[in-house]
Mediator complex subunit 16 C-terminal domain-containing protein (Serpula lacrymans var. lacrymans), 867 residues
Amino acid sequence: MFTDTQHSPSKGKAKDVPNSRWEAGWWEFYPLVERLQRSVVWTKSSTLITSHPVQPRLISRLFSSSKEYAIVTPEPVASSPSAYDPPKIITVSPDDIWLFAYFPGLECDGVGCLWKRGYQVDSWAIKESWSFPRGAGVIEASWVGSEREWIMTADDSITRLPSRGPLTPVSDPTLMIVTQEQRLQVYYLRDYGTNLKVLSCSLVRPDSANENQSAVPGETIPGTARVCVGAAIGQCYNGPDPNDDIEDPDFPLFDARNGMPRPPSPEWESSGEEAAIELCEVKLSFDGTIFSLKSKPLPSIHYSTRSVIQLTFICPPALKPQASNPSLQSPKKDGKSQENTSTESNVMYLVAGYLDFGKYTEPPQSEMVLHTLTHQMSPSVANPGQMTWLSKPTSRSFTPGVMSFFTPIITKTVPIKAIIYAGVLDTSGYIANTKPKPKSTPIGKVIVLKLPELSDDTEWESSAILSSVELAGSELPLSVTTSPNGTLLGSMSAVVPTQTSFHALPKRHSNPTLDPASHLPLKSLYTLPLVSALLARKSTADISFLLSNPSVKADLLAETLYGALSLFETSVPGGLTNSWMSEVIGTAVEIYRYLFFTETYRSRALRSSNSKDRQHFMELHQTALEACTVAACLAAFEDCQENDAYDLEAVWQLVSLSNWIVGLLERLLRECLTLDGSIEPSESNNDDGPNVPDVSSSDSHETALHTPILLHLAHPYLLSNLRNVLSHINAFRAFLGTLTARGETAQLASDVLFDLVDSSGVGLPDSSSAINKPHLFIKASDLVDELSKLSKLSISGQNTKEKDIDVITKGLLLRHGSGITCLRCGGRSEVTSEVNAAGRISRRWRAWEKTWLARCICGGLWVTGMD
């Protein structure tokens, strides 16, 4: 809704342009009460999966591209789509392998479906689907266990938090479901099993179940239909030491439910939503043979006549005191220090969000209530000596704003603690009528709250929630989700199926005084999230998206990548190994590709023809991808080598890799010659001629930095890989030359390899010693004879488009329109296709190919198709 605010113009002055005012009515927030917002999840592989606004199907989008793909719908829903609502519950397992969704039935039973993902992120196959009776539909689902977050402790070491939830060593997946009939159902698939098993127990009375007993039907109260409309599941951390998990596997789960109608009463007014949140403690155990489930109801939490819009459990990590903050150590009576013996590990938080619409004449009032649940000795005289959970509430109002969502996170640096991101929307605002007209306007903000007092955390900045000026006040971001690395907020449109908006989440103040114990100050706020994402094998697309923003300075990008290498070297167990070096370089592939596209779109928007920056970003992207390829080629030669011999069944594949390496070396030496011609040699005092240019001069370094391909010679890791793979090519060439009795295939491959090397213009046996020198500045006259040998018949000189080359094997793509595409570098491959070539296929080569089934050589994830 828009109105104009008029201003009376002053005499003799230009007339003020009125500002547009937008307002949000109470009805814009009411979908939160009815739980009508679309369900959406942001997966570990950076895929947004959400429900269609009106159709019973799932919509998936790859971030940050516009590529969408469909997830197959279960047969009962696909055959009668008009009989089902869009899925209300969507959840993805922490390992990003399993997907569950529930389709409510209109006049029939609901359908739950479990999918399993293949090697490609858009390849989901139905594992099993089953029905839920009417009145017993799914209202909450959660996976047993959770991802162990990576954090930085006070001694600057990076470690993982303990695991959460019950230990299920012989089942994958294990899914917990709360139904409308107030029962907890645990679905699990035993290792090497084919069918799902289920355990079920009541949440309103003490109950138990195990694998060997038959399922018990749900209970109902005569004359009523007690239907649960909302629930939350919480899982405790297992302990400060991951090695202690096996010793005490019986950790509780918590269930909170609200919205149950009262028991029967002669008065009609008594029917409706019950103003109470019922709690239940559940234990899932495994004794080495069977699973068992036990439930124990806890005292309810009552509230006034308001509407609950969200329930969430927060479990603070149970850390050793010195791991979170050295100040938590307290002195003993004899003056010696001792560890704090507080019961922080016995504390859970239940956070509830409320809306009060009053008389429905103005926007609602919102409130957050945090219930601190403490496991202590019961103060009741009737139950002396028994452990129980005590509740202590804390509340906060957000008037005049409206809290629409909140999500908990665990900080990654000291002090390690749980905080809350809370989204507070404005009910009205102004849009400045400026030229050019703004495309977006702030309609709220995301703030950070401390626990348990729910006050603003001054260590964090707030971030703005933006909306297009046309939709301000009329379409609020109610369906939201956070990115895998906690850097972005995604909001889905309630009307347009694929319209998604992204907002930056709050960042911690970059004040070094906030972390006085740290001996390794981080200049970039994205360094630790990047390292954590690489360690957890998460997609880094959200971090790369932020770093490729035009407003981000180049220094921040350099500090982020350099800081990541430093953290791996000093703080990660095992140090900076070659695999982690490749992971960081793979991230650079992604970032510079994003920067290239960002600069391309920016140039089009500004109608600019300046392509200098775009070309530089593409060269950086290409160099980083080449570094990953050289490392992969080196691994292929090592895998196909046995002593001084190479696998002849992989001879053509190794020749293809050699072809690509020689082509890279040609371009590298040409660039060196070009650079040599652009730098004037210094005067010489001897009779041997002019001196080699001083590579230590600032001018030489500045010239080299603007030539990304020279990083293959400047960086020790890249140079070492290049030298080693060239040594393998020399050894492979020599091995083929020593064969006396060889087949036709080996003979042809040997001839091709010899022609390839001899006509390349690069003497490989001699180049090893030259590349070994850090000051590689070769005069053009020294290579005139070699350059004249370049032949148009050289394999590396063929006019083959890069898009027709397999990014893994460096061979030609044989099946156009099929295969897989990398989300990070855009390369295409057919490593998942069956090989139909004549002759035997090398087992060593196939084993090397299989290492890239899940990820590309740059670390990117695969999608099906070649588009």
In short: The chain is about 25% helix and 25% strand. The first strand starts at residue 2 and ends at 5. The longest helix spans residues 578-605. Residues 40 and 763 are 58 Å apart (CA to CA).
